Amino acid sequence: MLISAIIGGVEYINLYRFPEIPLVGFTLIGVVLSIFLGFKNTACYDRWWEARKLWGVLIATSRHFDRDCRILTQARRERVIQHVIVFANVLRDRLRRQTANPTELIQTSGMSQQALTQLYQQNNAPQYTLSLIQWELLQALKEGEISDIIYAQMNKNVADLSVVQTGCDRIANTPIPFAYSVLLNRTVYFFCFMLPFSLGSLLGLATPLLVGILAYTFLGLDALSTEIEEPFGTQSNDLPLDAMVRSIEIELLGTLGKPTPPPIQAQDNNLL
Q: How far apart are CA 52 and CA 268, in angstroms?
């Protein structure tokens, strides 16, 4: 904006004539840049939306578990539901590369300190948790609590959760190529920097206004795509994983008749 104002003012009072760059060149570059920015935004939004759909499947599958597990004994049902809660927590922590609060996880999942320690020793805590769920279902099948048909249906829920984790891992571990993002970002800045030299002689004092609008649009689209590229973070436009995990905890613990934690509240209009 400052450069635009200087160039526009100098051109307006005829103090100095800057070398005029043909506007047709910027027109062509602007069209190409718009196409590539649109492509990047589409790719980043697809990643964000796919991540949201995967977590929607996780929430739906947790509800399926709640309904299907009512055929189990109360003790086994509680263990399976608690493992589902643990799975949601450790998957969120895996995607955000963080460690859950041990005290809070023990309170919501009912895990013992020993079980929690063993969980943290696993390289893939979500898959380990799913293996515990499957073991409980196998024991129920062996002890005659459920038939093989019901076992197959409940085991499908385990497979669905595994697919959710695989999809989330793919998004988290496969970012948009860095070279592509850097090239596009630098091209946007170069375009916005050089634009006043083409518009200064035509617009004069109005140069900063038009350049500011164009720069805001291009730089804003570039920044927005960069922010939603990694949907599992803690920025304003990332997925509110904490809130979704808490909703699972509230629903499942409520069906077990256990105390439920309070919902996650937004802080500074940002729901994590």
A: 22
The pTM (predicted TM-score) of the whole model is 0.82
Which residues face 267 on adjacent strands?
A: 270
67-113 pLDDT, tens digit per residue, is 988 898 998 998 899 999 999 999 998 998 877 666 666 666 667 77
- Between CA 157 and CA 163 the distance in angstroms is 10
Radius of gyration of the chain (CA): 27
- Whole-number Å distance between alpha carbons of 159 and 156: 5
> How far is residue 176 from each of residues 65, 181, 192, measured CA to CA in Å?
35, 7, 24
* Structure confidence by residue, pLDDT tens digits, 136-158: 999 999 998 888 888 899 999 99
Nearest CA among 105, 51, 81, 83 for reference residue 252: 81
Instruction: Identify the residue whose tokens are 């190409």.
Output: 32
CA distance 11 to 201: 6
Tell me the C-alpha distance between 198 and 202, whole Å: 8
- CA torsion sign for 244, 44, 61, 147 is negative
DSSP category for residue 267:
B
Residue in the block written with tokens 């695989």? 166
